[in-house]
Input
Amino acid sequence: MCYNVNGDVMARVLVGMSGGVDSSVAAVLLKEQGYEVVGITFQFTEEFDASDAKKVCEKLNIEHHIVDYKTIFKNKVIDKFIEDYNQGITPNPCFLCNREVKFNFLYQNMDNYHCEYIATGHYAKIRNNHLFVSADLKKDQTYFLGLLPSSMLSKLLLPLEGLTKDEVRNIAHKYELINANRKDSTDVCFITSKFKDYMQNKLDDTPGNIVDVATMKVIGQHKGLAKYTIGQRKGLNIGGAEKRMYVVGKDMNRKILYIAFGDNNEFLISTSCQVINFNLIGDKVSTAQARFRYHQPLIDVEIEYLDNNEIIVRYNRVKAVTPGQACVLYLNGECLGGGIIKEVRKDENRIWYL
Output
């Protein structure tokens, strides 16, 4: 047990240490605030290198543990990721990982390491178990945290809530951390070149027709529907087209990939979506704003609540809302919660391509 200079017992906090600058500075700030910091690094893949996380903890003179979760991560995230692609939807594994794996493991390990709180280097604020956007809106990560239950938020500390990325790097330089200048990762953590090869062998590669939805004529052949996503415009390998073309739908039974020409085609537009596994962490409201993609401008929406944690979200003509992605709701800077898009609709009728 540790005590501060006044003789008070210091609360222990378990910090998820990835080896990046954000989680490292989170540990720094918690230590400055008087917490007894315990670092933990989860080994999710064979390729993951925990050495930077270990060096930072040694630099800060804090306890550090490395825990092997490769098998669970494969079963819960990687296999589900591939399964969703084969079912024709476009998953975002970060949501599943945050809720089912990363934060869940932190939460479960609190007692193992005798901690009262968990912490990460995410950019967001928590007030009375409610989630709010961070001071640095460019880095705000509430879109990825909106699926976390209130039980986890009640134990979660987010030390970077009032900081910008530049300020975080300045703190890292002050403490001479080895990762102070490390670039932010923009990729899904497990998608390496090796994994891409692995995934290609797991995806359904049954070929089929590419059909122009405006004329319903066959204009080419695809290499497996799982390899295409709604809204995609590159990699279609159809020559001679004068206008840009977009993937607008899939018929999984007939193995048809539908495309439409032109940036403003109607086939990517929808007016509502059905959201499943909706996690409500704010107040239940009938009007709010939503994001259907990370950093997308907020969109005015109306919400209808259904049974079984499902909602219908209605909006005015939004492009490329995609099944498998997340819908996250906001109101006055508060993140009200989020869920996974199941169906996309137009004029209250199910769009023909789903």
